[in-house]
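#random but structural
TW: two for the price of one
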Amino acid sequence: MRDTPVFKFASDQTPFAEQGRKVVELLRDKKTDDEEMQAVLTEIESLANEQGSDANTASTDAFVTAVCQVGCKSMSHVLATIDRTKGRLLAVGPAEVKRQIISSVTEFWVDQPGTAVDIIDKLLNYTIVTPMSVIEWALHDHLDKGKSLSLNWVYELVSNTMTKVTNRVRQIAMARIDAHLPADQKHIVDETLARERQSMRELFAAIDDAVSGIATGAEDGMIESYDDGNMEPALLQSWGKRWLNTWRRKSAVEEAVVGDSAVAASAELAAKNAEREAADAQRDAEEAEQEAQQKVKDDEAAAATAAADAARAETQANAGKVEQNGDGEMKDEAMDEADGV
C-alpha cells in the first residue's frame, strides 16, 4: 500500500496525460480564467471523441483527478479545492457522469479508501453527487459479482449515504407531527415528506435489488462457478445474505418511524398531547388566578384585623389615661381633708 496517491496523468502512457497535467496547473493557479480551463477540457473531449470514448466521462475524470491531486495534502486542502470548483462539478448533469466523479475519487485514493469515503461524503453534502448515484456506483457498476460486499469501506460508503437520507426524512417527519405547525405550512411539509420518503424507498429497493441476486446465487456467473467446484460463490452468497437481511431490517425500521401510518399516528398523538398540555396550562392559570384572588382576600382580611386591633389598642390606651386622671383628683381631695383644709 502506498503512502501517497499516484497521479495517473504523470505518466505519458495515460490517455490525455498532457491535458491532465495542464488542468492541475490551472487549478493551482487561483487566477486561472474559467475559459482557459474550459479550453483544456474541450480539448480532452475532442480527443475522446476521436478515440471513440465518452467525451463527458473523459473530461470529468481528468478534472476530478486533478482536483484530488491538488488537494491530496490533507482533507482541508481537498475540501478547499472542491469548494473552489463546485460550480463546475455541480454542472455535471447525466447520472453516469456523476458516477464517474465517484470512480475518479476512489481510483485516486485506491490505497486509502477511507479517505475516498470521506470525500464522497462531502460531495454528497455539496449535492455534487446524489445518494442514488452512490448506491448505483457501489452496488451496480462495481458489484463485481458480489466481491465488493466483503469490503468494509463499501459498506461504510453505502451506510453513510443511507444515514444522510434517513436522517433527513426523520427530520421532516418530526416537523410534520409538530402540533403547533401552522396550517398553511402543513401542505408544504406533507409534499416534501412524501417526495423524500419515496426517494428513500427507491434507494432501499436499489440496494435490495443489487444484493438479492448475490444472496440467492442467481447473479450472472455465480452458477457457472458453482459448476466448476469453486467455493468462492458460497462465500459471496453468505455476504449477500448478510447485506440483504441488514438492509431489509433497516428499511422496516424506517417505515415504522416515518411510514404513512406511523407519521399519522404520531401526529394524532402529538395533537392529543398538545390538547392535554393546553388543558393543563388552562387549569394551572385558573388555579393561579384563584390563588391570587384568595391572597387578595386574605390580605384584606389581615388588614381589617390589623386596623381593628389598632383601634382597640387605642381605645384601651385612652381609657387608661382617663382612669389615671380620675385617681389623681381623688388623692388631692383626701390630702386636703387631712390637712384640715
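TW: number two ↓
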Amino acid sequence: MEVIDANQTTFLPLRYILDNVLLTHETIDWAKKSKQDLIFLKLDFAQTNDKVSWNFLLKIIDMMGFAKEFFTMVKLLFQDAI
C-alpha cells in the first residue's frame, strides 16, 4: 500500500509546489487551444487540522505497521491535541 500519492508535489525530494502552478497553466493553455470547456475547483483546507481525530490517526499509523519509534514520535508531537 502506498502512503504517499504519486501526485503529491510538496514535502518530498525533487517535488515542488510550483509544479502545481505549472500544471494549472498547461491545463488552461490546452483547454484554450483545443476549445474545451474547463472547470477548476479550489478547496480551502486551512481548517482541516481542527477536524483531525488524532486518536484515529494514531490507530491508522499503528495498523499500517509503521515502526513503534515513529508511532511514539507522532504521538509525542500531538499529545496536546489528543
